[in-house]
Amino acid sequence: MTQPASTSGTAKIKSPTPMIAQYLQVKESHPDSLLFYRMGDFYEMFFEDAEIGASALGITLTKRGKSDGDDIPMCGVPVHSVDGYLSRLISAGHRVAICEQVEDPAEQKKRGGKGPLRRDVVRILTPGTLTEDDLLPPRSHNYLAALGQSGDGMALAWADMSTGDFAVQDLASVRLDSLLAMLAPAELVCLPDALSPEMLQGLTTCISEQAPSLFDSSAGQRALCGYYGVTSLDGFGQFTRPMLSAAGALLGYIELTQKGNMPRLRPLSQIGDGGYMEIDQATRRSLEITRTLGGETKGSLLSAIDMTVTAAGGRLLAARLGAPLAGCDAIQARLDLVAWFVDHQDLCVDLRGLQKGLPDMDRALSRLGMGHGGPRDLDALARSLTVAAEMVALAASRTSLAPPANLDGLYKTVMAPAGLASDLTPALADELPLLARDGGFVRHGFDPALDELRALRDESRRLIAALQQDYVTSTGIASLKVKHNNVLGYHVDVRSAHAEKLMQDERFIHRQTTAQTVRFTTTDLAQLERDLSTAADRALARELEIFDRLRELALSSSDSLSAAARALAEIDVAMASAQLACKRHYCRPDIRDDISFEIIKGRHAVIESLMPAGETFIPNDCGLGDSGDIWLVTGPNMAGKSTFLRQNAHIAIMAQAGLYVPAEQACIGVIDRIFSRVGAADDLARGRSTFMVEMVETAAILNRATDRSFVILDEIGRGTATYDGLAIAWATLEHLHQQNRCRTLFATHYHELTNLRHALDRLSCHSMKVREWDGEIIFLHQVIDGAADRSYGVHVARLAGLPAAVIGRAQALLSEMEAGGHGVIDAGKLVEDLPLFDHDFSAVEAGAESAGLNLGSASASAEALRSRLESINPDLLAPREALDLVYELRDLISDARDG
Ligand code: ADP
Ligand code: MG
Prior knowledge:
Layout: H1 18-28, E1 34-39, E2 42-46, H2 47-57, E3 62-67, E4 70-78, H3 82-91, E5 96-101, H4 105-110, E6 119-125, E7 144-150, E8 153-160, E9 165-170, H5 176-183, E10 187-190, H6 197-200, E11 206-209, H7 217-228, H8 241-258, E12 269-270, E13 278-279, H9 281-287, H10 301-305, H11 311-322, H12 328-343, H13 345-355, H14 361-370, H15 375-398, H16 405-415, H17 419-424, H18 448-475, E14 481-485, E15 489-495, H19 496-504, E16 509-513, E17 517-521, H20 523-556, H21 558-584, E18 590-592, E19 597-602, H22 605-610, E20 620-623, E21 630-634, H23 641-656, E22 665-669, E23 673-678, H24 690-704, E24 710-714, H25 722-740, E25 743-747, E26 763-773, E27 776-785, H26 793-799, H27 804-819, H28 827-833, H29 842-855, H30 858-870, H31 879-898
The structure holds adenosine-5'-diphosphate and magnesium ion.
């Protein structure tokens, strides 16, 4: 991330003003943050911070005073609209330290101080430590992660401060890159140089390097015990030293940035080994799980299937899709919930209607816990609990069938803190201000003492208004007005023409004369104003007291509140999947503890959802048996190979996330790792030297796929010269078949590979059905048994508008090659000749060369002419086609002559 280069140019200032001196002192302890220095209604930046800030925000750079003869650059943003500016700075990778006044004039006087009021940094905003709604996308998590280290071991801890989630995982058996890909943390805290350059490549996370002391595992253990107020962490689980280092560093970093104002975090949870399906970054990208290759949400698998009605539900669905489970029972439990809602559609629709748009309890609770919550956050809790209770009551009233045990458990969790609603709801007014200090949020009738103070305040206001009538009558000046401004407070205001009259009246004290009007104060007005402001101050103080009490009350049940929020999110996700299942005819996958993979009439969730009305997606079966079968899929471009591969990977991911899947039937043996690679030519977004990347990524599969894994390879080897690509694809297939023995779908344009079916017994050939009609081909998008007999590339070229002459020539060449008379590669023969794993590809190259030599020769052209003539059916030729044909045939003759 970009860091301001500290205030190097300012350290040598000899005689700064007291204010600049104070600024420099604060800045010195926050060299790596932009310092937002509060002055009245603005946050100001100075020196280099001002230059960085002004250019990052596109605001005017001004100056304030001089230091040693040079102007001091300055820029500022208004306090009331600071959030927008903060979010732009944070997303540009900056850290921002908020420096506020930390004493009032009375305190300053008491300590006998002079000069500027004491100021200090109250909080440092970094990408991973945000909690404000305005700064965060509602439907995704914002994780702060910390990489801990102890001895040889490493662990990663992560927390979302805006929701309270907090977890840690040992990296002994889980790869850091996969974990980071799953979490996509906004910020990663680590030791200096902890990440290798390869790790850093492609990581969009902001890296915050911290001193080694932050990562001490013993200190971490103490910090965790202190944070949770326990003497031992045994009640939370068993944590390794690296885990303590990671979780401790995370807590320490939060303390550092929040200046001790700690968020409420759930009990530290531990992610066990093998809990999740492993999905590496390349696979996530190519399957477009939560984002498309172009980086957008729309068009991703998540956006196609997300029907949740709350932000927390959206976050949970995203998290589940990003981290599908790898344990049968846990998956079944989620599916049971969905199934129950599928069986009770009417109830599901009504419950969703109630839950829709429910406020974000997690984030409200987190803000209240951090001390920046307001009345609306209390209201969010109250409303959520009220609606949750309505949902549970509705469910109970509607069905004579008892809900399954786990749903019943969720209902109970939801209801546990329900009593809080009856404490909060009567206290809160209908219209609520954002901040407690704006007052006016306690409902009339809730607190008699407050109502009395408000009555006093209103009475004073009424008396002030009445006084105006008094003065009008007694002075006879009908246009006399009682007005209020910040300088004079309440005062009498008359036009200049009437001023003389009041000057004579000793009740009126002359204060101000302007061009149009003359202003007076009176002792009566002053007294009423004092009464008014005392009553208003006391009313506000009383409201703040009530706010604090309610806030404490809410926080005292924060554990059961966050459990309730989580349960509501789970219900939302289950109902969303049920709703989707009914709307788009998804089915419950049958999850097993074996290596089956049997999909009947599977569809692609995203393409299907984007299909224009009237068009239907063609479903396809996929059966990888139960012995690590490989399907080799061939067929022309645009026939639907990639779609077929991806839909099966998506189905596996959705199934293990505990969701229904777009198929008529699906039977899936739990997959431990899923891999997807797309040949470079299909992957335009990346723009890097592609072949190397492709090979590195393929290597990862061959090294890591187990017999429980699922692999899709889409035209790998394309990024290089034909025979290199063919050779690599060939050897990869063999390795997958013999060594990895994983379930594999392999799409290729190398027809030679289909001959491998003779050598590899678990490899079978499949192709995309096309129909030829009137010289055109029609893609049926159907997967059928057997290899495609030809590539149809020539037909696609015709569709693409290549000149007829070129098409004709290509077709002629093709027929000739297929006739096999000119040294075209006989891959079938290769298979028989060569032992597995020890190929000599020179034979392939030699075949290519001899083909190349012959193709240009005169006899080849004559042959081409003959076969072209043979292929013509004059009855079917339109006049225009006949003309084209004549040109084409002439070209063939001239080719023959030239040769
Ligand atoms: P290939 O990988 O064989 O070149 P794609 O999988 O990219 O082909 O598919 C090409 C286009 O065909 C896709 O954009 C999609 O819209 C359409 N398509 C693919 N499969 C189907 C299907 N089963 N039903 C309907 N349309 C499909
Ligand atoms: Mg493709």
